[in-house]
Amino acid sequence: MSTLLEMSGVSVSFDGFKAINNLSFQIGEPELRAIIGPNGAGKTTFMDIITGKTKPDEGRISWGDKNISLLGMSESQIAREGIGRKFQKPTVFEAQTVRENLAMALKNPRGPFDVLLYKKTRQGAERIEAIAEQTGLADVLTRVAGELSHGQKQWLEIGMLLAQEPRLLLVDEPAAGMTPAEREKTTEMLVNAAKTRAVVVVEHDMEFIRRLKCRVTCLCEGSVLAEGSIDHVTSNPNVIDVYLGR
Ligand SMILES: Nc1ncnc2c1ncn2[C@@H]1O[C@H](COP(=O)(O)OP(=O)(O)OP(=O)(O)O)[C@@H](O)[C@H]1O
Protein backbone atom coordinates (compact mmCIF):
# COMPACT_ATOMS: atom_id res chain seq x y z
CA MET A 1 0.00 0.00 0.00
CA SER A 2 1.54 3.31 -1.06
CA THR A 3 0.65 6.71 0.42
CA LEU A 4 -1.97 8.48 -1.68
CA LEU A 5 -2.58 11.62 0.36
CA GLU A 6 -0.45 13.12 3.09
CA MET A 7 -1.43 16.14 5.13
CA SER A 8 1.15 17.65 7.45
CA GLY A 9 0.99 20.48 9.93
CA VAL A 10 -2.32 21.75 8.54
CA SER A 11 -4.13 24.49 10.47
CA VAL A 12 -7.14 26.64 9.67
CA SER A 13 -8.80 29.32 11.77
CA PHE A 14 -12.24 30.88 11.50
CA ASP A 15 -12.35 34.30 13.16
CA GLY A 16 -9.40 33.39 15.37
CA PHE A 17 -10.79 29.95 16.34
CA LYS A 18 -8.53 27.06 15.26
CA ALA A 19 -10.93 24.53 13.71
CA ILE A 20 -7.97 22.46 12.44
CA ASN A 21 -4.85 22.58 14.55
CA ASN A 22 -1.52 21.29 13.22
CA LEU A 23 -3.22 18.22 11.74
CA SER A 24 -1.21 15.45 10.15
CA PHE A 25 -2.92 12.60 8.35
CA GLN A 26 -1.99 9.96 5.80
CA ILE A 27 -4.05 7.55 3.75
CA GLY A 28 -2.81 4.78 1.48
CA GLU A 29 -4.10 3.36 -1.78
CA PRO A 30 -6.05 1.20 -1.36
CA GLU A 31 -7.29 1.82 2.16
CA LEU A 32 -10.55 2.21 4.08
CA ARG A 33 -10.39 4.71 6.96
CA ALA A 34 -13.06 5.75 9.45
CA ILE A 35 -13.00 9.20 11.04
CA ILE A 36 -14.78 9.72 14.33
CA GLY A 37 -14.86 12.52 16.86
CA PRO A 38 -17.20 14.77 18.85
CA ASN A 39 -19.30 17.54 17.29
CA GLY A 40 -17.07 20.42 16.28
CA ALA A 41 -13.94 18.21 16.17
CA GLY A 42 -13.17 19.43 12.65
CA LYS A 43 -14.31 16.41 10.59
CA THR A 44 -16.24 18.46 8.02
CA THR A 45 -13.51 21.10 7.84
CA PHE A 46 -10.96 18.30 7.30
CA MET A 47 -12.93 17.14 4.24
CA ASP A 48 -13.44 20.73 3.06
CA ILE A 49 -9.66 21.19 3.12
CA ILE A 50 -9.00 18.04 1.08
CA THR A 51 -11.56 19.00 -1.57
CA GLY A 52 -10.26 22.58 -1.78
CA LYS A 53 -13.43 24.20 -0.42
CA THR A 54 -11.46 25.60 2.52
CA LYS A 55 -7.85 26.72 2.13
CA PRO A 56 -5.61 26.07 5.16
CA ASP A 57 -3.60 28.87 6.74
CA GLU A 58 -0.59 26.60 7.20
CA GLY A 59 0.66 23.16 6.29
CA ARG A 60 1.11 20.90 3.28
CA ILE A 61 -1.04 18.38 1.44
CA SER A 62 0.69 16.13 -1.04
CA TRP A 63 -1.14 13.87 -3.41
CA GLY A 64 -0.45 10.90 -5.67
CA ASP A 65 2.66 9.19 -6.94
CA LYS A 66 4.38 12.48 -7.73
CA ASN A 67 3.56 14.11 -4.36
CA ILE A 68 1.96 17.12 -5.99
CA SER A 69 0.49 19.80 -3.74
CA LEU A 70 -3.30 20.17 -3.61
CA LEU A 71 -3.01 23.62 -2.07
CA GLY A 72 -2.78 25.68 -5.23
CA MET A 73 -5.64 23.80 -6.92
CA SER A 74 -9.27 24.83 -7.33
CA GLU A 75 -12.12 22.54 -6.22
CA SER A 76 -12.72 21.40 -9.80
CA GLN A 77 -9.03 20.67 -10.39
CA ILE A 78 -8.97 18.58 -7.20
CA ALA A 79 -12.09 16.70 -8.35
CA ARG A 80 -10.37 16.00 -11.68
CA GLU A 81 -7.36 14.64 -9.79
CA GLY A 82 -9.72 11.91 -8.59
CA ILE A 83 -11.09 13.07 -5.24
CA GLY A 84 -14.84 12.50 -4.93
CA ARG A 85 -17.07 13.52 -2.05
CA LYS A 86 -20.43 12.30 -0.92
CA PHE A 87 -22.36 14.70 1.28
CA GLN A 88 -24.83 13.49 3.88
CA LYS A 89 -27.91 14.45 1.89
CA PRO A 90 -28.25 12.56 -1.40
CA THR A 91 -28.26 14.82 -4.46
CA VAL A 92 -29.44 12.57 -7.28
CA PHE A 93 -31.48 13.74 -10.28
CA GLU A 94 -34.93 12.80 -8.97
CA ALA A 95 -36.75 12.99 -12.32
CA GLN A 96 -34.25 10.73 -14.14
CA THR A 97 -34.03 6.96 -13.96
CA VAL A 98 -31.29 5.20 -12.02
CA ARG A 99 -29.68 4.24 -15.36
CA GLU A 100 -29.77 7.84 -16.59
CA ASN A 101 -28.28 9.10 -13.33
CA LEU A 102 -25.40 6.62 -13.61
CA ALA A 103 -24.91 7.39 -17.32
CA MET A 104 -24.58 11.10 -16.56
CA ALA A 105 -21.94 10.37 -13.97
CA LEU A 106 -19.78 8.06 -16.09
CA LYS A 107 -16.24 9.26 -16.42
CA ASN A 108 -15.67 10.90 -19.75
CA PRO A 109 -12.82 8.96 -21.35
CA ARG A 110 -11.73 11.63 -23.86
CA GLY A 111 -13.19 15.08 -24.45
CA PRO A 112 -16.56 16.69 -23.81
CA PHE A 113 -17.84 15.84 -27.31
CA ASP A 114 -17.31 12.13 -26.89
CA VAL A 115 -19.31 11.82 -23.71
CA LEU A 116 -22.73 11.45 -25.32
CA LEU A 117 -21.42 8.86 -27.71
CA TYR A 118 -19.62 6.99 -24.97
CA LYS A 119 -22.75 6.64 -22.90
CA LYS A 120 -24.45 4.82 -25.73
CA THR A 121 -21.63 2.37 -26.33
CA ARG A 122 -21.69 -1.17 -25.04
CA GLN A 123 -18.74 -0.41 -22.79
CA GLY A 124 -20.74 2.38 -21.14
CA ALA A 125 -23.77 0.12 -20.69
CA GLU A 126 -21.61 -2.58 -19.14
CA ARG A 127 -20.06 -0.10 -16.71
CA ILE A 128 -23.54 1.02 -15.65
CA GLU A 129 -24.62 -2.60 -15.08
CA ALA A 130 -21.47 -3.30 -13.05
CA ILE A 131 -21.91 -0.22 -10.85
CA ALA A 132 -25.60 -1.01 -10.34
CA GLU A 133 -24.60 -4.52 -9.26
CA GLN A 134 -21.96 -3.13 -6.90
CA THR A 135 -24.44 -0.72 -5.29
CA GLY A 136 -27.43 -3.08 -5.05
CA LEU A 137 -29.41 -1.20 -7.70
CA ALA A 138 -29.42 -3.77 -10.52
CA ASP A 139 -33.17 -4.41 -10.11
CA VAL A 140 -34.16 -0.75 -10.13
CA LEU A 141 -32.20 0.60 -13.11
CA THR A 142 -35.37 1.68 -14.93
CA ARG A 143 -36.99 3.29 -11.87
CA VAL A 144 -37.15 7.06 -11.51
CA ALA A 145 -34.68 8.09 -8.78
CA GLY A 146 -37.31 10.15 -6.94
CA GLU A 147 -39.20 6.92 -6.17
CA LEU A 148 -36.25 5.23 -4.46
CA SER A 149 -35.97 4.73 -0.70
CA HIS A 150 -33.58 6.96 1.24
CA GLY A 151 -31.03 4.13 1.39
CA GLN A 152 -31.28 3.45 -2.35
CA LYS A 153 -30.76 7.16 -3.12
CA GLN A 154 -27.62 7.11 -0.99
CA TRP A 155 -26.39 4.04 -2.90
CA LEU A 156 -27.18 5.70 -6.22
CA GLU A 157 -25.08 8.66 -5.21
CA ILE A 158 -22.25 6.34 -4.16
CA GLY A 159 -22.65 4.66 -7.58
CA MET A 160 -22.50 8.02 -9.35
CA LEU A 161 -19.26 8.80 -7.53
CA LEU A 162 -17.82 5.36 -8.33
CA ALA A 163 -18.69 5.97 -12.00
CA GLN A 164 -16.17 8.79 -11.94
CA GLU A 165 -13.51 6.32 -10.78
CA PRO A 166 -12.14 8.40 -7.89
CA ARG A 167 -8.82 7.43 -6.31
CA LEU A 168 -10.05 8.90 -3.02
CA LEU A 169 -13.69 8.88 -1.98
CA LEU A 170 -14.84 10.95 1.03
CA VAL A 171 -18.16 9.83 2.49
CA ASP A 172 -20.03 11.85 5.12
CA GLU A 173 -22.30 9.93 7.54
CA PRO A 174 -23.53 7.30 5.08
CA ALA A 175 -25.50 5.36 7.71
CA ALA A 176 -27.65 8.30 8.89
CA GLY A 177 -31.36 7.61 8.41
CA MET A 178 -30.82 4.06 7.13
CA THR A 179 -32.52 0.88 8.31
CA PRO A 180 -30.26 -1.79 9.90
CA ALA A 181 -30.44 -3.87 6.68
CA GLU A 182 -29.50 -0.84 4.58
CA ARG A 183 -26.60 -0.09 6.92
CA GLU A 184 -25.27 -3.60 6.49
CA LYS A 185 -25.43 -3.33 2.70
CA THR A 186 -23.72 0.06 2.85
CA THR A 187 -20.88 -1.41 4.94
CA GLU A 188 -20.34 -4.09 2.31
CA MET A 189 -20.39 -1.50 -0.49
CA LEU A 190 -17.77 0.72 1.15
CA VAL A 191 -15.54 -2.23 2.05
CA ASN A 192 -15.67 -3.37 -1.60
CA ALA A 193 -15.11 0.14 -2.97
CA ALA A 194 -12.01 0.44 -0.76
CA LYS A 195 -10.42 -2.66 -2.29
CA THR A 196 -9.25 -0.60 -5.27
CA ARG A 197 -9.11 2.97 -3.92
CA ALA A 198 -8.87 5.05 -0.76
CA VAL A 199 -12.17 5.62 1.05
CA VAL A 200 -12.61 7.91 4.07
CA VAL A 201 -15.85 7.48 6.01
CA VAL A 202 -16.94 10.05 8.60
CA GLU A 203 -19.56 8.45 10.84
CA HIS A 204 -20.96 8.68 14.38
CA ASP A 205 -22.51 5.20 14.43
CA MET A 206 -19.89 3.09 16.22
CA GLU A 207 -21.53 -0.23 15.30
CA PHE A 208 -21.28 0.78 11.66
CA ILE A 209 -17.61 1.74 12.14
CA ARG A 210 -16.87 -1.55 13.83
CA ARG A 211 -18.24 -3.48 10.85
CA LEU A 212 -15.95 -1.60 8.46
CA LYS A 213 -13.03 -3.44 10.14
CA CYS A 214 -10.60 -0.67 9.25
CA ARG A 215 -8.13 1.76 10.81
CA VAL A 216 -9.89 4.51 12.77
CA THR A 217 -8.79 8.11 13.33
CA CYS A 218 -10.40 10.06 16.17
CA LEU A 219 -10.27 13.85 15.73
CA CYS A 220 -10.72 16.29 18.58
CA GLU A 221 -10.24 20.07 18.57
CA GLY A 222 -8.84 19.88 15.06
CA SER A 223 -6.07 17.34 15.79
CA VAL A 224 -5.66 13.57 15.84
CA LEU A 225 -6.50 12.34 19.34
CA ALA A 226 -6.00 8.64 18.63
CA GLU A 227 -5.46 6.40 15.62
CA GLY A 228 -5.33 2.64 15.08
CA SER A 229 -7.64 -0.35 15.25
CA ILE A 230 -11.17 0.18 16.55
CA ASP A 231 -10.27 -1.62 19.79
CA HIS A 232 -7.15 0.51 20.24
CA VAL A 233 -9.05 3.77 19.66
CA THR A 234 -12.15 2.92 21.68
CA SER A 235 -10.09 1.86 24.70
CA ASN A 236 -8.10 5.12 24.70
CA PRO A 237 -9.10 7.01 27.90
CA ASN A 238 -9.01 10.39 26.10
CA VAL A 239 -11.37 9.11 23.39
CA ILE A 240 -13.68 7.76 26.08
CA ASP A 241 -13.59 11.13 27.87
CA VAL A 242 -14.29 13.38 24.91
CA TYR A 243 -16.41 11.15 22.68
CA LEU A 244 -17.61 7.78 23.82
CA GLY A 245 -18.47 8.66 27.42
CA ARG A 246 -17.95 6.48 30.43
N1 LIG B 1 -17.10 28.58 7.99
C1 LIG B 1 -16.95 28.57 9.31
N2 LIG B 1 -16.94 29.73 10.01
C2 LIG B 1 -16.76 29.74 11.35
N3 LIG B 1 -16.59 28.64 12.09
C3 LIG B 1 -16.60 27.46 11.46
C4 LIG B 1 -16.78 27.36 10.04
N4 LIG B 1 -16.74 26.03 9.70
C5 LIG B 1 -16.54 25.34 10.85
N5 LIG B 1 -16.46 26.19 11.91
C6 LIG B 1 -16.21 25.80 13.30
O1 LIG B 1 -15.10 24.93 13.30
C7 LIG B 1 -15.29 23.85 14.22
C8 LIG B 1 -15.18 22.53 13.49
O2 LIG B 1 -16.36 22.33 12.73
P1 LIG B 1 -16.65 21.06 11.83
O3 LIG B 1 -17.97 21.29 11.17
O4 LIG B 1 -15.49 20.79 10.95
O5 LIG B 1 -16.77 19.90 12.92
P2 LIG B 1 -17.36 18.42 12.77
O6 LIG B 1 -16.38 17.53 13.45
O7 LIG B 1 -17.66 18.15 11.35
O8 LIG B 1 -18.69 18.48 13.62
P3 LIG B 1 -20.08 17.65 13.44
O9 LIG B 1 -19.81 16.26 13.93
O10 LIG B 1 -21.01 18.40 14.32
O11 LIG B 1 -20.45 17.71 11.98
C9 LIG B 1 -16.63 24.10 14.89
O12 LIG B 1 -16.42 24.74 16.11
C10 LIG B 1 -17.34 25.00 13.90
O13 LIG B 1 -18.28 25.83 14.56
Question: TL;DR of this structure?
Answer:
The chain is of the alpha/beta class and 246 residues long.
Low-confidence spans: pLDDT under 50, at least 5 residues? none
Tell me the CATH superfamily: P-loop containing nucleotide triphosphate hydrolases
CA-CA gap between termini: 36 Å
Bound small-molecule species: adenosine-5'-triphosphate
> What is the CATH class?
Alpha Beta
Question: How many distinct beta strands?
Answer: 10
What is the CATH fold-level name?
A: Rossmann fold
User: Which architecture does the CATH hierarchy give at level 2?
Assistant: 3-Layer(aba) Sandwich
The general outline is globular
State the strand order across the main sheet.
Answer: 6-7-8-3-9-10
Radius of gyration: 18 Å
The share of residues in extended strands comes to 25-35%
Order of helices and strands: EEEHEEHEHHHHEHEHEEHH
Protein name: Urea transport system ATP-binding protein
Keywords: ATP-binding, Nucleotide-binding, Transport
Pfam family, one: ABC_tran
Domain ABC transporter: 5-246
